[in-house]
Amino acid sequence: MANSIRVRAVASGDHTEVQALVQHPMDSGFVKDAQGNLIPPHHIEVVDFQHAGKTVFTALWGPAVAKDPYIKFSFKGGQKGDDLAVSWVDNKGESDSLTAKIM
Amino acid sequence: MRMIFAMAGLVLLTAAGAAQAASTQADFDAALAAANTAEKEAATLKNRWTTTEQALAAAKKAAAAGDFDTAVKDAQHAEALAKASIAQAKEQDTAWKAAVIH
Amino acid sequence: MLRVIAVSIAALWVAGAWPAAAADAINPDADFKAFRDYFTKKFPKVPLNDFVNGPYSMDAGLRKQWEAIEDFPPYDFAVDRGKQMFATPFKNGKTYGDCFANKGIGIRQNYPYFDEKSGEVITLELALNRCREANGEPPFSYVKDEMASLTAYMAFTSRGKLFDIKIPNDPRALAAYQNGEKYFYSRRGQLNFSCASCHVQSAGQHIRTEVLAPALGILAAMPIYRSEWGSMGTISRRFVTCNSQVRGVPLEPQDENYRDVEYYLSYMANGLPISGPGARP
């Protein structure tokens, strides 16, 4: 199920720039469907990026983040060829993860 | 364009002038039939308006609740909107050419 | 001099040659030139090929945001899904590729075309569903999801290829072209707008918070991931929503009028590159 995460990490000098696109409905729980019933909340709660065994970035998401969220950040360190591990967990306990190589 | 303004004016007049004795189921049936006939013609011209459909729905809802005054008013409004959409389609059948980039 | 002109005009009128006859002649090439000149003159700073980027060719700030989005485009998932669908055979063992020239790769720019056998305009979406039905599969909804994924993948394989829409020398094809032109310029809905009201007269201007795309090349980026929809949408979806936005009851997707207007707009875009699939606000 690693199709839900797309990552591109590029080493640049002493830091690494990371972009990620995550496929997820990110239902806030406040929206009604065509019949007028509330669509239950279903959104990612935590996204974790790890490099060399250490967490380099944590995102705490919730109902305010829109569908198919995109994230961009940079962290100090990282070299071409290193692994970058990405994982997320949502409010229903579902999760996904992916390990990508830094370019 | 002028036709549309005239029809819009007619719609306003029709909506405002329905204050008479209480309407009945029969009054509603007649008003709805007239509105449906007009909307059917608009459909064959492939030019129905969403607001016409909304007025028809409102009319039926009011009639179901027994409020025939509102139901008749809404049905007459729907008929006027349908007729305006028919006029628009007929006018545009030739008027479109003037808008083409030359 | 004036008397000569007056006599000539009278003679032409009597002969019935003017003005009615002139107005009836369908001349796609003249239309094409006038259409193109209108937009290149109205927007002299926009390179011709940039018109296919719609609102981004009209607004610098919007363009910057778009360029950042294109780094990691939201339609990526749809393209992948489309590729997967193309690789998956139907229950009878055939594939989408078997229905199209070149196995369906790099052909999007040739659609729509006029089918002289059936006497109708065939769009890519219609062709895909007919392919499914010919192979015993149920058709997809025209407006999103699977249809959007398939057309996204096919558009992606055609990126950069130039629109090459043909109008065969067949009165039915010319009639379809003109019907599309008529649809484009006809006012509809209670708001009384035509497609031209926004995309010709008001191209580059704002409608609420949106920047209006110019009609020139407007289908080149389809299908699109529209942030407003939070999902992919096809040409069918956009036609349907445009209708309801002007308070007109939409036609059925792939209605003859929709196919004809797609034919007209695509012909007007001949020579411009496919930019799809696209991301729009």
Global outline of chain C: globular
Biggest beta sheet summary of chain C = 3 strands, mixed
The quaternary state of the protein chains shown equals heterotrimer
**What is the mean pLDDT of chain B?**
88
Q: Structural class, judged by helices and strands of chain C?
A: mainly alpha
Q: How many strand elements of chain C?
A: 7
**Overall outline of chain B:** elongated
Number of domains in the coordinates of chain C? Answer: 1
- Total number of helices of chain C: 11
Topology pattern of chain B, helix = H, strand = E? HHHH
CATH fold-level assignment of chain C: Cytochrome Bc1 Complex, Chain D, domain 2
| Secondary-structure-derived class of chain B | mainly alpha
Characterize the largest beta sheet of chain B: strand count, sense, and whether it forms a barrel. Answer: none
CATH class of chain C: Mainly Alpha
Key features of this structure:
heterotrimer, A: about 100 residues, mainly beta, Immunoglobulin-like, four-stranded antiparallel β-sheet, three-stranded antiparallel β-sheet, C: about 280 residues, mainly alpha, Cytochrome Bc1 Complex, Chain D, domain 2, three-stranded mixed β-sheet, 7 strands, about 45% helix, globular
Protein described:
The complex is a heterotrimer of chains A (103), B (102) and C (281). Chain A is mostly beta strands and 103 residues long. Chain A has one domain (2-29, 40-101): Immunoglobulin-like, CATH 2.60.40.10. Chain A has strands at 5-12, 15-22, 44-51, 54-60, 70-76, 83-90, 95-101. In chain B, 80% of the residues lie in helices and 0% in strands. Chain B contains four helices and no strands. In chain B, 35% of the residues are buried. The mean pLDDT of chain B is 88. Chain C has a single domain (29-281), classed as Cytochrome Bc1 Complex, Chain D, domain 2, CATH 1.10.760. In chain C, helix 5 (76-87) crosses helix 7 (145-157). The chains are: A mainly beta (103), B mainly alpha (102), C mainly alpha (281). Chains B and C meet through helix 3 and helix 4 of B and helix 3 and helix 8 of C.
